[in-house]
Amino acid sequence: MTPAGRRIVAAAEELFYNRGITAVGVDLIAERSGVTKRTLYNQFGSKDHLVATYLAERDRRWRSLVRAAVEDCDDPVEAVTAPFDALRTWSRTNTRGCAFINALAELPDPSHPAHRIAAEQKLWLQSLFKELATAAGCSAPDALAVQLLVLHEGALATQPLPLDTLSDSTDLARAIVRAGAPPHW
Amino acid sequence: MTPAGRRIVAAAEELFYNRGITAVGVDLIAERSGVTKRTLYNQFGSKDHLVATYLAERDRRWRSLVRAAVEDCDDPVEAVTAPFDALRTWSRTNTRGCAFINALAELPDPSHPAHRIAAEQKLWLQSLFKELATAAGCSAPDALAVQLLVLHEGALATQPLPLDTLSDSTDLARAIVRAGAPPHW
DNA sequence: TCAGAAGTTCACAGATCAGTGTACCCGGGA
DNA sequence: TCCCGGGTACACTGATCTGTGAACTTCTGA
Description:
Chain A is mainly alpha-helical. Chain A has helices at 3-19, 26-32, 37-44, 47-71, 76-80, 82-93, 99-106, 113-135, 141-157, 165-180. In chain A, helix 4 packs across helix 6 (82-93).
């Protein structure tokens, strides 16, 4: 991707996430990234393609944050809930909920690439939970992974409320992991 | 509200929920409800006000469904998780996630009435969980209510995924309620 | 009988939207 | 020297957006 292309995606990320996709016009993105609208269309072809690139880039950044949090854990039982620690970090600078859920809300057409990217992101996290739960020796890793995913998404969705939902979610996540893990690791 | 007003809100509900708020124009809503755009503006004054009415109406319908599910329960311990049964019913005809979360995604301005309505809806459910948990004699009803809220919102947010997240969420909800409730009710 | 509320008809304003066409500039590599 | 890719400048299209003005009809209740 060219330097101008990177600036466009960066501006699109900030604007799409904070103001909504439909509400942000390509003219504004071009202006914010110090680029002509012509350049934007030469690079991405359409607004839909730019939206897909924005989501893919965001997904990439978020996955690397989660992976780092998991790798920082020595104890395999603690590692299962490491994504919740990553979420705490992530939420400090991302206070408008989940970009993927938000994108699906605005783009009802299931054939839009945003749907595939969003689904892949959630399913990736679910399979990560399952892997980690299996590695920690948890019983019923499938159901556990789904429950951890729900807690994760719920904590993200309730972000705008004046409640510390992330703490209570993390507590519950740790509790169900410990309950499923072998007693004395 | 006049007959035309009711038809407008009904059309707005269907269109806003399924296609997104910004993506739906007032012309389309007027056409679908068999009404002139002039009438729409005479009744609601602005699109923002119509959006607020749509959300308020949806909230009203949803609360009455939840209340009915709770009142159907004889056992106070079962009653705590009755909103999850209501969600199962609700999800059969509402497959595009939470209308309130989706609205917040599109309307970033916190002074928009949609933000107040959405927050009130979530906090109402949380306080309902707390009331029910207290009535069932659960210990730590505050934290339990937040955890049940997170599970509820998480199940709703993961609706588009090819996973039965509602079942696993409901199972976990029942488990934590039973764990907190007095042993032999 | 008459007033007022609800609704229609239709043209219109002013802004914004995604996307295009064309001509041009500039730097680096063959 | 020349070419070409990345980028600029800028006008423009055609559609769509929210919202308004003004005159008209139709029904109902006092």
